């Protein structure tokens, strides 16, 4: 349904009020409560336009919303008219034209397909000026409208506070983007820096942004986690004949705030022929500055490189410049207790979804694994993450993609998974998408997407772009292949009962559910005992507590399950005993469970070890995988003069 006032469209699903601005009031944006008015462009200025005649005036300028990551991706659209028309379909009636209704349409790529978003053109303003993103020209409104449509897609403007440039690049192009570190050893097989080795063509065609992870002392203009765009890469010669690589950087703040050798009056320009200096400085707009390549790699920590996309929607390789003219994609899921096998450290790794990739001819292949993550306030997620383990992420799973070349006629799943992959995304990382680039010979390949944690539920999209014909299909493993004799797998979990927090006592007490929750996933029931648990307390003999434990079957989501006195355990190790350790052996059907170790009395502090032995249908895979670092979102904000 639509709503109209004075003949103009008003979007009832994204109202011009606080519900469109805020989600949980956890970001600095909450300070705007009650201060925002909503105006249409014709109420903001005379003769509004979508795009100004001078395209340099169309570049985004950041307001008081921390979405520099989105604005950097918007800059990409101005380099590619095809993508701009894809995101903002042409031919829409604008202000002053017959047929204008105040309604605009946008398209964003989400989880494998383009999704249309319709909005009205009422924009949030303070003092009759748009308070969020806008164009350098105050008469152009394409950026403000796109930002509103993207906010609607994610539920509110507040949900755009902090994010990853690579995610916005993918959402606005349907392509692929990679993040490269400038501070760590990220090398090609030849040992050269990936960023430095970008060809001249790729420096011109690809989209590049950059950011710093920490604001250097004395350099507040860089902004911690603030994203900037690389606009141009120029080779110049000094008066002495030496070549210098200069990069033009654009800050979405829209003001000049860089201090370096190549600022407007910097010492670097004295090294060049005056005509070179005059030409390059003459092309520098507000918010733009130049740095040489050495200064760039010293000052910035990370770059995001987006693959160019042509009008046939083929990606162009940032490694070779070749067009990846063949594309395949399939969706899949990690289902807890069925196909969420975790990383290769787990014996259940082989239960992960598996895919065949048939490469008909040798060629360049780009494989990407994209997880469907629930959208939440990233600013709030950063605060949550600081209170949790540094290697955890509040809304993405740590994911990876491994690839093996196989002989299908003599294929053995376990032998393959115990061998070294021919290509992989290396460590599991908390990214929305991980990318594997390889040159593959003709033949069959096994692709296994996985999460680091066993039992992590989620949905994903697997994409393959290649220069050669390929065919992607799901693997259907027979029951005979899955059942290869039973083995015992042992896991030990150390924990503690903390007075006033996790020392909840036995089931007789209402605080019982506060005891530590230890997940237990049973995947195999060969008949007879398939689970053995031992709880050992680390207390002196003369101060032993009465200990025991209960096993509860998970109903719904484990994270949301509340255990109270009315919830009955499926297995119990009671009565609580004043002994060093207690144990139980049992048979449990395949399912998700929670083990609650406890002392009988509440508020009895002690440390313990819970040892879990499970029967599994195969030998454990011999592998020790490590977990990558959690990502950080770019979010820096600039307060406009309003």
Automatic annotation (TrEMBL):
Any one Gene Ontology BP term: proteolysis
Signal sequence coordinates: none
Domain of life: Eukaryota
Domain Calpain catalytic: 8-305
Annotated keywords: Hydrolase, Protease, Thiol protease
Keyword hit for Protease: yes
Entry's family note: Belongs to the peptidase C2 family.
Record-given protein name: Calpain catalytic domain-containing protein
Organism of derivation: Tachysurus vachellii (Darkbarbel catfish)
Highest classification ranks of the organism: Eukaryota, Metazoa, Chordata, Craniata, Vertebrata
